[in-house]
Amino acid sequence: MIVRNSLQDADLPQDDPRVKQLNVKMKKEGYKPDALIEILHNAQNSYGYLPINVLRYIAKVLRLPPSRVFGTVSFYHFFSMKSKGEHTCLVCTGTACYVKGAQKLLDKVEEKFGLKQGQVTQDGKIGLQAARCIGACGLAPAVILDDEVQAKVSPEDLISKLTSKLETHEQG
Amino acid sequence: MNRVDFKNIIHAEELKAKNAPTKHKIFVCCGAGCISSGADNVMKKLQEEIKNRGLEDIEVVPTGCMGPCNQGPLVKFKPGNTVYQKIDCVNIGEVVKSQIVDKKPLEDLLLFSEHREKPFVNAEEDPYFKKQLKIALKDCGDVHPEKIEDYLLHDGYKALDKALFEMSPEDVISEIKQSRLRGRGGAGYPTGLKWETVYRHVNDQKYIICNGDEGDPGAFMDRSVLEGNPHRILEGMTIAGYAVGANKGYAYIRGEYPLAIKRFEAAIKAAKKLGVLGKNILGTNFSFDVEVRIGAGAFVCGEETALIASIEGRRGTPSPRPPYPAESGLWGKPTLINNVETMASIAPIILKGGEWYSEIGTAKSAGTKVFALAGKINYAGLIEVPMGTTLREIVFDIGGGIQGDGQFKAAQTGGPSGGCIPAEHLDVKMDYEELMKLGSIMGSGGLIVMDENSDMVDVARFFMEFCVDESCGKCVPCRVGTKMMHDLLQKVCENKATQLDIERLEELAVYVKECSLCGLGGSAPNPLLSTLRHFRHEYDTRVQPVRKSENLVHQ
């Protein structure tokens, strides 16, 4: 019965452009279960994260047990079932950045905004994450702020950039 | 398209290049490092500048990584190979004026000008480049990664043409065997042997996988090749397909590398259009298709069986071997898995011959290796050197030494699976065997330099934390063992550990190494063991005296 219930929840509004995009992707992949990761990438791109009803929907369309879909999502770091915040601050903690003081960046953000890695501020404005290596080791320590790589960042730099993100946000 | 058409296209491109109104070309490095430093804006400004000065004949080419990433954005002028560093929207105008109009190089902005008494006008003469030998990276920094015509001008797809028309699959395999090329992903398994095993398994369906899941923190070699010269990888994969009898390939690229994914997908499209990929390549009976699979952030997926699980859309957990992927891999079919750098070395070997390649490097490790230099080093970036180059040459002659007034303390190679090489072994010849002897590994090529401020116990803890996070959880030794080792290391870092804890660490390290299912657990203790071996005193100084009660419990 539980399975049936979860499948009933598995419907999404078909006029939502994000759902349309997801449908197109699943069709393009021929509804093959082995394209699950590709499809999840697509869904996360349009939703920003992977809401549980979207996962149920994908499981239903691909005819996979929901456990298989959740299991895959929870295994990979790239996928998140929580919203990442309007502005994302991704601090690289790879070896080169570690040697050059990435921890100081994380500490400073925690001190200033009370954020630990993986958390979002209460108003949902800023999300702080740590990455294992973004491959920009020549520019260590590096931070990706809203998809833009910031090179050789100092703790003070980072705080002022985050603050200005918040300010432009308020003005906009 | 058949072979004659292909030759005609190359000929036409060569003619076009020969008859170009000017030989001047300006290359803007658009590798990940330079883009992050603002290469996009430099590119726009440069194009404006050229237009304003009426120099429209000069072609401006965005290229892949040129090497010294932290000197970027870099701009190179040809002919003459003059490279300028730290270019921005303001000084690009001056550079164009003095280089093109006044024909006089602007010394202050030449590459490495702050460190050289007299910077080299021809960058190739600088020791940074002179000590290097670029094979896998050869055309990165010279070709437009999104223009297949540019690749054709750099001997592109000539190796494929040669393999298809002048060689049998057996010939290709024996050429690779003769080259003594070894897998560049880290383990160093002979590539030719791997190819032969897949070739020998009879099956109507075989697969090629190119492993671009570069998960080592501190490594960005694969990224730079994928972004800088994607066609080279594609050509290598196609030749591999021809040699082992596969007609389908997958390129597994990390999700963290969106630019690499975009460029590789564009390369597949262009290659299909030209007829060097897809059905009946160059008019032969051989067909080969490549699809991109995007990784989703799991270090363990660099392990081949885990990678296969991930391509099949499942959790990326490894499976016991045998059966090896060469026998039963993707969907149970014989599968050849090679690293990006290995694939990038295939085309040059086919073109110039296995013998040529085997003469480079050391007796047991032939060819060249790409290293990603990072950490407390002056010229962080990407280099390629012959196997057997010493660590000293890499750090001091090429890397420009330690930043500031620091002293070299250790170099970490092989990421979380590798170890630290201390200063007394600076003259070690970098190849698979020598690094193994020191308790480190070649790994995929990350090389992180540490100075005297680095705390080696904390380095070991850092890597163990990584392994705890990345352990897939399938086997107990790795899942529980890494966590226990991490907690003990944490204890040492907090000055709370006793000698018994160190002994426990050593004991655990052996268990985890011997009993884990895959390479992640099998190599997870390496950073710990190598720091214990070379920096034991840093552990000893933090160890607290054993309390009597504790001593009794463990007797």
Description of the molecule:
- The complex is a heterodimer of chains A (172) and B (555).
- Chain A has 172 residues and is an alpha+beta fold.
- Chain A folds into 2 domains: 65 residues; 85 residues, 3-Layer(aba) Sandwich (Glutaredoxin), CATH 3.40.30.
- In chain A, 50% of the residues lie in helices and 10% in strands.
- Chain A contains 8 helices and 4 strands, in the order H-H-H-H-H-E-H-H-E-E-E-H.
- The radius of gyration of chain A is 19 Å and the shape is elongated.
- Chain B has 555 residues and is of the alpha/beta class.
- Chain B has 4 domains: 102 residues, Glutaredoxin (3-Layer(aba) Sandwich); 211 residues, Rossmann fold; 87 residues, Ubiquitin-like (UB roll), CATH 3.10.20; 84 residues, Up-down Bundle (de novo design (two linked rop proteins)), CATH 1.20.1440.
- In chain B, a hairpin with a 5-residue loop joins strand 9 and strand 10.
- Chains A and B meet through helix 3, helix 5 and helix 6 of A and helix 2, strand 9, strand 13 and helix 18 of B.
Taking the alpha carbons of the first and last residues of chain B, their distance comes to 78 Å
Of all chain pairs, the largest interface belongs to: A-B, 39 and 56 residues
Could you tell me the CATH topology label of the largest domain in chain A: Glutaredoxin
* The top level CATH class name of the largest domain in chain B: Alpha Beta
Question: Low-confidence parts of chain A, pLDDT < 50 over ≥5 residues?
Answer: 1-7
CATH superfamily membership of the largest domain in chain A: Glutaredoxin
Mean pLDDT of chain B: 93
Structure described in brief:
The complex is a heterodimer of chains A (172) and B (555). Chain A is of the alpha+beta class. Chain A contains eight helices and four strands.
